[in-house]
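Quick check before the chapter quiz. The format below is the same one you will see on the exam, so make sure you can read both the input and the output lines.
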Amino acid sequence: MNLDPESDEPLTDEEFDVLERFLSSNAVCDDAMDAIMLHGFLTAIISGPNMVMPSAILPWVWDARHATRQPRFLSAGRARKMTGLIIQYWNDINNTLNHCPDLFEPPLHTTEWKGEEVLILDEWCEGYCEGIDIDREAWEPLLERHPEWFNVILLFGTASGYRELAQRDYTVAQRRSFANLLTAGALNIHQYWREERRKSMEQGERPNMIAAVSRPKDRTGNHTGRSELDAQDGNGSEDLFLVDSLGRTTEDAFHPLALSPLSTRITREGTSVEVHIYRAENDSRDGWVLEIIDSLGTSTVWDDLFPTDGAALDEALNTISSHGIASVTGGVPEHMTKH
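Here is the expected output.
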């Protein structure tokens, strides 16, 4: 399967900030994951016993409590931009775990505790626990076999762990040591399941795939709010092969919306923009939408539709040639709308 080479590139600091701002904006519900929780979540998904398809995880990114509330995107292009960043995040974590594990390190914030600076582990560990819960039954054997690998994850990522933290007076040095134990545990877990999957494949077994949205249990063992009917809805077959043998995923896994093959990236004067040409879903008007998205995720959408995708591409090229690429990254003419 051919992957977009850019989806294999690590997120830049600028792209990480864009993703972090979106996940904390009013475009998503209050229970959406933040970028740190998302890192823990994706680490568990990538490291786990089975192959989890994107359709099973994205609803939990947008709504970590119930997986029912969807984000409010201003346009299809904006949706593709944000999910594209999640794809890069997924592949970056996957590549680090599999090819350079010595560089793996959860991106943790810091806080002051007892007058000293310590790392905040809660968000990352909560995300990791969410990832476990999507396929909890398959994780149970390792949880029982090597509980020491999960000690820090469960201590900071579960309600019972919070209660233990409140009861025990850990020193600053102990709190700081937890970060090293967390990283070591995550790497041990990943290596264990990676080896188990390798053995299964050598025996001719195909990896199990989780394609439908599952219903993680909360920390008390009760299922969260989705109904049995919701949990069983759909077979997820559309996602087949959208995660490759290296664990990487593609943008198509998140978006069935068909872009025109003329959609492209344009670079001028060291600045790049994405040109998206598509038919808007459920749009009663006939024609093609032209949208240009800059590196910060800001989109410029033409108000009028185009009769063909070729006409839309011509308009994009003419605008950039006539007015410069800054015209679609800064202020825009009246016939366009900035989002």
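If your answer matched, good. The chain is about 45% helix and 10% strand.
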